[in-house]
């Protein structure tokens, strides 16, 4: 895992001086690669590459980057891991190729020389983002992995095309101007994250997952906009194609046969991700996804696997005891970190700098802290991310199945049921539910916002309206504008569950989940690996019948069946939590002063980005306990904290006052 940066000058650039900026750009990524730094440039061609190395495989100088191919034709700066590189190496050696070291980077270059770029990409199993310079054709190729696990930002300036793993490196290029993208800001304030097909800065885009951008200097002569470069992008892998084919050609087999196939696939994915020349461990929350990954790690390890988890003090949020039970059963070497509100306060000032773009998934706090904990002991950690998106684990997936069944009832009957649930939601808002003798899980299920949403879903007229309501943001009732988030093509899919899973895979997964893991882990120089998002597992999941994903009112049914082979059902069979954080409570208590200060900054900024009347109403209602506005407030607070860190970026004055209106907050 590493940090990469690069510059390609336009033919009309006055001189090659901008190439010197590669040093500062690369230095900005030191946290992604503290083990070494490398540069390569060709002044005549107007190209420069930078690389920060986190040494994982082949710790010697033979793994140093940027790396040239054996013939000298190609130069590569690469971030990520190709897990099947040993198999590819054996195949290439059988064809007569020789290798200097043992790195996957050298294997990638040999594969590209031998098979061609697109054919090689289709053979790579892993996570990656890279810049490849073809010295023969003077072409720059930028490529990103299938699911978008590794980031790659691209910006076009008057004199150059620049790329990097993070925006902080692009910000170091002297010709780049920071100007706010209003649609991206609106999307962030509405959803809490900037969609993967957007960027908070104008003139910057993220290379789409599963794609390649191939470009020469002449292709952007005259300082063309980033958008004009889109016709140079081609898909080498398409999730839309995978989803459509999977639904057309479902796997036939008994429950046991399908579970056996999944077991074999995941064992391979986990085994490949356990290859490292440095200490390795796993994140363990005690939930289905992380427990399955750790169980398969331990089943294939001769010594106890190192596992790490976060513990909360607040009731109803702490899953650490469950993780500890799973760890004891599997025999892992387990470590807990107890997270207090004070810990949260201490880490909050780091969040804007860590995430570069404004980001407001509150689980970023424990994710950053558990990564920091793990890095004290290991350099690589396997994660359970992706299980919900592949195997239908979110509440909206279960709601889709449940409400879709109830949509067989006449609309008037559903409207009556929705009215009753709405009354229960009102009771919850007035704190009447808290007086009942209910468990913490039951109280969580009877939160007013959850009941309000269920009532709204029940009253949908048809499946299309139900889909729109399920995929809308948490503030959809206030939102006037929702930027599109599909970045990998539009799949033609039948069935509400399939549509929701696809929407999650092209939107929420690369825009939120993978951004959260990448930035949190790399901020601590830790490599995070996701076996559940191996492309072979994803392709298998799309061929599964819907009833092996959602059955008996439970999501991820087939993944649970696999896990029960390794862990007793009693340790896993409980309501889903996720990486929840008691942000609503913290905002009313230990984080109140911090939040109040940021809200004061919003008032004093005078630039019209926020509708301050709405902000104050949300804040007052939340503080008084009339309504839980923690999600909306957290997004606004994180945006303001990011703006403070970024130095109040410029934005077109005529549109500034519309940002908060567009977001609907």
Automatic annotation (TrEMBL):
Family to which this protein belongs: Belongs to the asparagine synthetase family.
Pfam families given in the database record: Asn_synthase, GATase_6
GO (cellular component) term, any one: cytosol
Domain of life according to the entry: Bacteria
The species this protein was found in: Mesorhizobium metallidurans STM 2683
Protein name per Swiss-Prot or TrEMBL: asparagine synthase (glutamine-hydrolyzing)
Feature type site, description Important for beta-aspartyl-AMP intermediate formation: 385
Gene Ontology biological-process annotations: asparagine biosynthetic process
NCBIfam families: asn_synth_AEB
Catalytic residues (UniProt): 2 (for gatase activity)
Gene3D superfamilies the record matches: Glutamine Phosphoribosylpyrophosphate, subunit 1, domain 1, HUPs
């Amino acid at each position: 895992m590493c940090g990469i940066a690069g510059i390609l000058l336009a033919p009309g650039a006055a001189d090659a001086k901008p190439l010197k900026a590669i040093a500062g750009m690369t230095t900005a990524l030191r946290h992604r690669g503290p083990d070494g730094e490398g540069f390569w440039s060709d002044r005549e061609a107007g190209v420069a590459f930078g690389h920060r190395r986190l040494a994982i495989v082949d710790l010697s100088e033979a793994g140093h980057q940027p790396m040239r191919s054996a013939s000298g034709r190609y130069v590569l700066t690469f971030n990520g891991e190709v897990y099947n590189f040993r198999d590819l190496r054996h195949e290439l050696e059988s064809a007569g190729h020789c290798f200097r070291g043992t790195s996957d980077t050298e294997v990638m270059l040999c594969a590209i020389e031998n098979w061609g770029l697109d054919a090689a990409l289709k053979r790579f199993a892993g996570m990656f983002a890279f810049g490849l310079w073809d010295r023969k054709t003077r072409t720059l190729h930028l490529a990103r992995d299938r699911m978008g696990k590794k980031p790659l930002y691209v910006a076009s300036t008057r004199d150059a095309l620049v790329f990097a793993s993070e925006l902080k490196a692009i910000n170091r290029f002297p010709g780049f101007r920071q100007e706010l993208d209003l649609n991206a800001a609106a999307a962030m304030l509405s959803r809490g994250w900037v969609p993967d097909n957007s960027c908070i800065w104008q003139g910057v885009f993220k290379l789409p997952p599963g794609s390649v951008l191939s470009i020469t200097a002449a292709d952007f002569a005259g300082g063309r906009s980033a958008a004009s470069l889109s016709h140079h992008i081609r898909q080498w892998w398409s999730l839309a194609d995978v989803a459509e084919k999977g639904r057309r050609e479902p796997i036939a087999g008994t429950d046991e046969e399908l579970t056996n196939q999944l077991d074999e696939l995941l064992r391979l994915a986990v085994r490949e991700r356990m290859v490292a020349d440095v200490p390795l461990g796993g994140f363990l929350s005690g939930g289905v996804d992380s427990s399955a990954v750790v169980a398969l790690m331990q089943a294939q390890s001769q010594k106890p696997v190192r596992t790490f988890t976060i513990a909360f003090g607040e009731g109803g949020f702490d899953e650490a005891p469950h993780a500890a039970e799973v760890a004891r059963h599997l025999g892992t070497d387990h470590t807990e970190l107890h997270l207090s509100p004070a810990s949260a306060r201490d880490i909050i000032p780091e969040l804007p700098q860590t995430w570069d773009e404004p980001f407001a998934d509150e689980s970023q706090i424990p994710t950053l802290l558990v990564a920091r904990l793990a890095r004290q002991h290991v350099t690589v950690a396997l994660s359970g991310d992706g299980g919900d998106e592949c195997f239908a684990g979110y509440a909206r997936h279960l709601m889709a199945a449940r409400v879709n069944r109830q949509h067989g009832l006449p609309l008037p009957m559903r409207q009556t049921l929705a009215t009753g649930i709405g009354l229960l939601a009102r009771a919850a808002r007035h704190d009447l539910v808290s007086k009942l003798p209910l468990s913490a899980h039951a109280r969580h299920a009877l939160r007013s916002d959850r009941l309000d949403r269920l009532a709204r879903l029940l009253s949908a007229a048809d499946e299309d309206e139900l889909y729109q309501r399920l995929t809308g943001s948490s503030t959809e009732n206030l939102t006037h504008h929702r930027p599109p988030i599909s970045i990998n093509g539009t799949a033609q899919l039948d069935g509400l569950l399939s549509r929701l899973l696809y929407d999650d895979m092209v939107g929420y997964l690369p825009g939120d989940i993978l951004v959260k893991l990448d930035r949190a882990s790399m901020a601590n120089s830790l490599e995070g690996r996701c076996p559940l998002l191996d492309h072979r597992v994803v392709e298998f999941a799309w061929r599964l019948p819907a009833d092996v994903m959602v059955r008996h009112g439970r999501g991820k049914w087939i993944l649970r069946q696999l896990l029960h082979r390794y862990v007793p059902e009693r340790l896993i069979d409980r309501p889903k939590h996720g990486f929840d954080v008691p942000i609503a409570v913290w905002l009313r208590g230990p984080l109140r002063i911090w939040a109040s200060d940021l809200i004061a900054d919003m008032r004093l900024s005078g630039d019209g980005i926020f509708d301050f009347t709405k902000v104050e109403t949300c804040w007052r209602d939340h503080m008084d306990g009339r309504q839980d506005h923690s999600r909306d407030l957290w997004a606004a607070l994180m945006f303001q904290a990011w703006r403070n860190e970024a130095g109040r970026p410029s934005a077109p004055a005529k549109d500034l006052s519309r940002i908060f209106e567009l977001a609907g907050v």
